[in-house]
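Give me the fold.
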Amino acid sequence: MNIFCVVTDEERSIALIKKVLRDSRLDYTRIQIATMPYGTEGSYTLKYASKKGVTEFSL
């Protein structure tokens, strides 16, 4: 499942998304959260991965 959000505070938004996923009892063990500046055509930057050692993100 992919979830796309336009946000103004990246750090707070990542924390809230992680909380909602945990509270909703979704499979929190496989999430990856990446960001890309709004309005740009570029690549995503991985900001959080539930598995240790994951350093890359792609759709």
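The helical segments are 10-23.
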